[in-house]
Design a protein that fits this description.
By secondary structure, the protein is mainly α. It is about 45% helix and about 10% strand. It has helices at about 5-10, 60-80, 85-90, 95, 100-105, 110-115, 135-155, 160-180, 205-220, 220-235, 235-240, 270-285, 305-320, 330-340, 355-360; strands at about 15-20, 20-25, 50-55, 115-120, 125, 250-255, 265. A hairpin with a 2-residue loop joins strand 1 and strand 2. It starts with a helix and ends in an 11-residue tail after the last helix.
Length: about 375
């Protein structure tokens, strides 16, 4: 409040100002109080609330201020403790920020499921707009089942996606029960048994590998190189994208594994050296200024991003469909399984358990007959 306005109205509180002759209330709202309320980029209420004009009695302005404050409090409280509000608190927490970078990047799954329509008392509402304490485990079960049905209707398997979405909600609610007051949460409705994910049984043959690699070169020169490294290292696609030139050592290529798998070094073979040299050759067409550049670069000499790789794979799939080869297409996950299946040592991918190694070993064994 300006000194002049303070002299005229000594009892008006902070954030009440004179705006061209109008007395307005424009408070700063902390992040935790902004849910459901419009603020500008600095956190101030937008638009300000008009209390009156210069010359009005102070008691009338105070009465208008108290009414405006009560309205804001009601708006803030009505939006608090909804599932969406709890998710936002969780995303801003140190717990979430301590998670792996890849997990943090997958928060888009929150938005998709929070916007999922549900019926409550005959009305259709977004899941995120429900008070978290009002969500029951049967509601969460129906939601998970419906999400799976929708994924399958769209031609996707869906089990892993729904497990991920429900898992994110469960983690957020578990965090809220420990750290947030007055949520009313007595349990975790999203603590559901996971859908069993179908085991991959397809083995990519050498002929299928060579066919798709040849076509991939028409899409982008880096794709066959990514394929070769993915296969030889039995790596996830993102693990290949994470490789740097410095990961090539005198012994082989050091691979930083994700999802709890053990980091390891894949020893040199003639084929692995050729794949590494192919990656180096891609650098020759660009000026790469980084001190420790990525092993795989995309257009412009920059690190190939996951979204860039996904886009290239989608273009490749469309091209194979156009050529009537859709049944021959394979993704990078299947290629990693081929790498594990073809390796002499099934521990190549760094999996810590025999069960995980068996899951990726999809090559049919050939046995001598009895007798």
């Amino acid at each position: 409040m300006s000194p002049r306005l303070r002299q005229q109205y000594p009892n008006l509180p902070k954030y009440v100002t004179n705006s061209n002759g109008r007395i307005v209330y424009r408070p700063y709202l902390p992040p935790g109080e902004r849910q459901g309320i419009d603020v500008d980029k600095h956190g101030f209420l937008r638009p300000p609330v008009k209390l009156g004009k210069v010359g009005d009695r102070e008691e009338d302005l105070l009465r208008a201020y108290l009414a405006a404050r009560a309205t804001l409090d009601a708006q803030s409280n009505s939006a608090k403790h909804t599932l969406r509000w709890i998710i936002n608190q969780y995303l801003a927490s140190s717990k979430f920020k301590s998670l792996a970078h890849g997990t943090q990047k997958r928060v888009s799954a929150f938005e998709k499921i929070l916007d999922h329509p549900v019926r409550v008392g005959g009305d259709r509402r977004a899941l995120g707009d429900l008070r978290a304490a009002s969500i029951t485990m049967p509601m969460a079960r129906r939601l998970a089942d419906k999400r799976l049905t929708d994924y399958k209707a769209a031609g996707r398997k869906g089990e892993a996606q729904v497990n991920h979405e429900i898992g994110l909600l469960s983690a957020a609610v578990a965090w809220a029960r420990q750290y947030l007051d007055n949520t009313g949460l007595e349990g975790n409705p999203f603590d559901l048994p996971k859908f069993k994910t179908p085991k991959n049984k397809r083995y990519v043959t050498d002929e299928e590998y060579l066919l798709q690699s040849r076509i991939a070169g028409e899409i982008a020169p880096y794709l066959p190189v990514v394929f070769e490294l993915t296969y030889l290292l039995a790596a996830r696609g993102i693990e290949v994208l994470d490789l740097k030139l410095s990961d090539a050592t005198s012994d082989g290529i050091d691979v930083a594994r994700r999802k709890g798998s053990r980091d390891n070094t894949i020893l040199w073979s003639d084929r692995l050296r050729a794949a590494y040299q192919a990656a180096r050759d891609l650098h020759q067409a660009h000026t790469v200024s980084l001190l420790d550049p990525p092993m795989i670069i995309g257009a412009g000499g920059r690190k190939l991003s996951k979204s860039g790789l996904d886009s290239a794979m989608q273009r490749l799939r469309r091209l194979m469909v156009e050529r009537g080869l859709e049944d021959r297409y394979w993704n990078l996950h299947l290629l990693k399984a081929k790498g594990v299946s073809d390796a002499k040592d099934k521990r190549i991918a760094g999996h810590r358990s025999e069960a995980m190694r068996d899951q990726y070993n999809v090559k049919r064994e050939k046995m001598e007959p009895a007798g």
